[in-house]
Amino acid sequence: MSQKKFTKPFTQQEGMPDEVIDRAVEILKGGRLHRYNTLADEIAEATLLEQEYANYQEAKYCIACTSGGYAMQIALRACGFKTGDKILANAYTLAPVPGAIHAAGGKPIFVEIRDDWHIDIDDLRAKANSSGAKFMMLSHMRGHIADMDAIVEICNEYGISMIEDCAHTMGAKWKGTRSGNFGRIACFSNQTYKHLNSGEGGFLTTDDDEVAARAIVMTGSYMLYQRHGTAPPEEVFQRVRLETPNMSGRMDNLRAALLRGQLPNLDQNARRWNERYQTLEFGLRKSENLYLPERKQHEEYVGSSIQFQPQNMPASSIPQLVDNCAKRGVEIKWFGDAEPKAFTSRYDSWQYIEDMPDLPKTKEVLSRTCDMRVPLTFDLEDCALISSIICEEVDALATN
Questions:
Q1: Residues near 294 by Cβ (< 8 Å), separated by ≥ 6?
Q2: Could you list the mean pLDDT of each consecutive 10-residue stretch along the chain, which spans 400 residues?
Q3: Are residues 219 and 315 in the same domain?
């Protein structure tokens, strides 16, 4: 067996372009970091960012927030959620999603997933019918977009307001429609490992006037709401401004400048991610001991991470696979571990949630789900080497 090793870090992101750094320095020197700290003839960076991202997303409104998790909390409250309400959610997601539901005072109703990591449509329909939930937090987890026609049909049938968690699908489309434009609200993350990087940050987008007005006030506009780049008419704010709490979570001008400088390159970077993803996918498919579901032709994904399932070995062997790959420089995460590790956790580890259900199909799928980041700092040769290392280590442990 070849014992080639991979030597690049999986956590290294691309640096900021010089023009972004120059603009950030200019803002720092000027001292006007707060988004409402502007002169009469100035437009804040955060305001400009909201205009530009709304145009990109093809949404009426965009509100720039401190994080994607915060955007999800605000989204729930802005669309009429009340403490104690039930919220449908796919069980395969990351901790900020149930965290946002819990912080808002909601009760999650977890839905099973399928072998391809998509939400189980039959289980969703059954739980929409039995739970009476009027809200849904749909995670496009790791960039896998489910059957949106079927999901929208269920939401319409049962009067469910859908919030899309698009942390992993910024720039992606499903049948030509941008991810995030199927539900009432979409939430995006700009955390370091996402498609736009400001360290931390998020967006909320919507076409709903009242949702946008409430979200703007909640993020901490005080009575300066018309300084937002995309804001509903004054009469909408007059209806909601005094009954909507300020839960400060504004994006500052420094982070907005970082994101504005990256946004024009988002689609180009999506193509670069997909080149790397497809190189990895081609290499991993060479092993008969690896399963990668075929992605739908109409799913225009952004391959910033890749998932696969080792076959012909017990789940108990996967930690050994992870360790063996790590010794050769390849960093893989495993979603089947009962103990949370780094950013990875299984739904039944969120013990603050009452009445945790048993979801046997989700547990079975996650017991063999491996996950790997695809940084743009890797080139195509790197991806070919990584896939060969994984195949060698999987085949060495396989029992066939």
A1: none
A2: 86 95 96 92 95 98 97 96 95 93 94 96 98 97 97 98 98 98 98 96 98 96 91 95 94 97 98 98 97 92 97 94 97 90 85 90 95 97 98 91
A3: no
Tell me: do 252 and 389 sit in the same domain. no
The answer to whether residues 61 and 116 belong to one domain is yes
Number of alpha carbons in the 13 Å side-chain half-sphere of residue 393: 26
Can you tell me whether residue 195 is helix, strand or coil? coil
Cα–Cα distance, 231 to 168 (Å, whole number): 26
Is 1 domain-assigned?
no
What is the number of other CB atoms lying within 10 angstroms of the CB of residue 167? 28
pTM of the full structure? 0.95
Q: Are residues 200 and 106 part of one domain?
A: yes
Number of domains the chain contains = 2
Same domain, 96 and 168: yes
- Dist. CA 90–CA 287, nearest whole Å: 30
Choose the final residue of a domain: 215, 238, 263.
Answer: 263
- Rg, C-alpha atoms of the chain: 22
Q: Identify the three-state secondary structure at position 258.
A: helix
Residue range of the domain that includes 292: 266-397
- The span from the CA of 90 to the CA of 151, in Å, is 12
Same domain? For 114 and 246 the reply is yes
- The enclosing H or E element of 161 equals strand 161-165
DSSP H/E element including 90? strand 86-90
Structure tokens that stand for 204 in this block: 């909320």
CB atoms within 10 A of CB 316: 9
Phi then psi dihedrals of residue 154, to 5 deg: -65, -45
User: Is residue 344 helix, strand or coil?
Assistant: strand
